[in-house]
Design a protein that fits this description.
Length: about 280
Amino acid sequence: MRKFGARLFYRYDADALFKAMSDVFDLLGFEPRFMDIYYEGYFDLSNVRFDRVKIETHLKEPLTSILIKNELDNAFGNLAWFRLSVDDTYHHKFSFEWSNIGVDFLAGHDYFKKLVSSEYFICGYYYDGDDLFFQTNKTIRYHKHLQDSAFKTTKNQFGDLVIDTSENWGRSETGAGLVFMAAPLMCYGSGFFEIISKEKLLQFEGAILLRDEGHEMVSIKLFELYELPSKKENREKQEMFWSFFDLRKIIDQYNRKNTISEEAWLIIQLQNRNKKKKKK
């Protein structure tokens, strides 16, 4: 059974996070069973009963992620159906990610429109989760397990042999806390226009300019979400997207521009260590 996902990225702002998370709760439409809360990089609460009030309380603290488990379906057991990831220290972003056998419950919903109409919204993707994982995964053992012999290898920065995914057009890559990909459905807010301009985005075939509550967004559809991405014409559209925007170069530039210095990283580590000591 295929799993599909949606992920939205935002510039970090404490009030914006609290408001957006409230909209996420209103969007749920069901009562989750369990949740995990990671606090400053370690488990604070694990596999406890879902409690909206407790989550809203923790949103005001320096957490790193919240997982809401089960259940629009039971086919995958007690897995994370929703994940909030927060980075208010290094790259100043937060993201929402849904994973399910379908994501139709998001499309066109008024609460979802509120989520992407935020001035802090950067970009969003709808994708085939299984295909994205396979296209992005660089572990040779994993591909051998699937008896996939048609792969090239390269060496990573540590000299280890890994899968060469540079021509996997359905892959994702991360730069400075932001994910880039050629997803079936994509939406870009004003927070992304400094990376690729609105004008350039609109030059891509099928791009549409949307306006809602005073906010502009560019929507791009490569193919239907539930189509197989592996179809020849769909892979060609993904390749065209990577090529049109020279996305590999864009990622490198964004990473260089937004990566913190080693000195700044050490200062942040020291500050976090002192915070943990005070809590003990």
